[in-house]
Design a protein that fits this description.
Elements (H helix, E strand, L loop, with lengths): L1 H7 L18 H11 L10 H5 L8 E4 L14 H4 E4 L1 H7 L9 H10 L5
Antiparallel strand pairs: 1-2
Length: 118
């Protein structure tokens, strides 16, 4: 019976209500960034449409070079210089550690080296 309990795992799915701080983003800035930079990840080159067909068409995550949480106040964003397209994996690796985001350049070096020890 003890082995069955170990294999069963923990209960999930309970509803929890939270209060979270979110930073407002502009859909227009996202659209402009995609017009300028395209929908291919600037780090690894991943293209959602190439991999997933029409389901992936026009999909990409847009990353702020300077995280909004690090800005002292709201600020006008330049989609050409402040935003870049990233695939979900690269975007998550940049933000993996709270208060220790990587720059695009730092993650590019890790990706290029294939450095698995970061």
């Amino acid at each position: 019976e003890n082995k069955q309990q170990e294999e069963a795992g923990e209960i999930e799915g309970e509803v929890q209500y939270t209060n979270n701080k979110r930073y407002k983003r502009s859909a227009s800035n996202r659209e402009k960034a995609i017009e300028i930079h395209g929908t291919q990840c600037v780090i690894c080159g991943f293209d959602f449409e190439e991999t997933y067909g029409k389901r992936g068409r026009d999909y990409i995550e847009i990353h702020h070079r300077t995280p909004l949480s690090e800005k002292k106040s709201s600020k006008k964003i330049n989609p050409k210089t402040d935003l870049v397209p990233l695939c979900s994996n690269c975007h998550n690796m940049i933000h993996r550690y709270k208060n220790d985001s990587l720059t695009i350049e730092d993650l590019q070096k890790i990706y290029d080296k294939g450095d698995k020890g970061c």
